Amino acid sequence: MNYRKIEKIRTPQSFNWVGDAFYTTSFIGGEISRTRMSPFFAVGYNADIHFDAKEIPRGVGAHPHKGFETVTIAYKGKIEHQDSKGNHGVIGEGDVQWMTAGSGILHQEYHEKEFSKRGGTFQMVQMWVNLPAKDKETTPKYQDLLFEDMTKVQLNENSFINVIAGSYKEQKGKGTTFSPIDMYNAYLQKGTVVDFTFPKDWSTAILVIEGSIKVNEETDLKKDSFAMFENDTEETFILEATSDNTIVLIMSGKPLNEPIAHYGPFVMNTQEQLVKAFEEFQSGKFGKL
Ligand code: MN
């Protein structure tokens, strides 16, 4: 069988602090262009880092977003979130926070209080999922997708797929999206082989969160490796866990093929919309926090 080949592998080269809470590397931007992985505009990855105990939680204070969605997945440690629409939530290991910034929102992102007091290892992913032009002004909303509540597809006794959004083998996840997207966390024990099939033209990538895998019976990937697949060839690739307690994040989405105008926390289609977004933010239209 011919498998969908890996086009590019990226491993963390450099990290940047976001506030004093998130130490992230970017897998999209640079070698992989923002349009190549559309609708995924950014994949920020905070690899394992230890935080000492701290009474006042580290974090990023109130800041705006408009025109896209932030998808935050906690793998180690806990994150607390609050926004100008009155939403508030805490996510821990394997939980997902899917925030639609849409027409504009302010939010803040912090380490959860108890985690901060205790200290410990922290690991998370934050993706920016672009919105189709027709949905840029949608009302902001917030989906809490908790590990226990996710659609779970059992592969064998101790291996399973958590469906964050879209579906896996006809089993639908609870997360709703504005363009076609499949997103999963695969929890795999050593020797487990699992296959994934997405339309040829969808932007598709995986990130090894924990453990190690072999892709298509030939490529070994270690923890913290990001692999983007070719488009327009085959639809299916396979992963084999080569260590126990392996976790892999899988994402695939139909490209938007729309112009992008980006500045800081705003992702729009035109320069005029960017200027307007900035004016709306300045005039307080995104609410208060
Ligand atoms: Mn943010």
**End-to-end distance:** 54 Å
Q: Give the helix/strand class.
A: mainly beta
Proportion of beta-strand residues: over 45%
Poorly predicted runs are none
- Profile the largest sheet: 7 strands, antiparallel
Helix content: under 10%
CATH fold field value of the largest domain: Jelly Rolls
Query: Mean pLDDT score, rounded?
Result: 97
Number of domains: 2
Helices, by number, come to 2
Radius of gyration: 18 Å
How do the SSEs run, as a string of H and E? EEEEEEEEEEHEEEEEEEEEEEEEEEEH
**Ligand catalogue:** manganese (II) ion
| Spatial arrangement of strands, main beta sheet | 1-22-19-24-17-14-13
The level 1 CATH classification of the largest domain is Mainly Beta
Number of strands: 26
CATH superfamily of the largest domain: Jelly Rolls
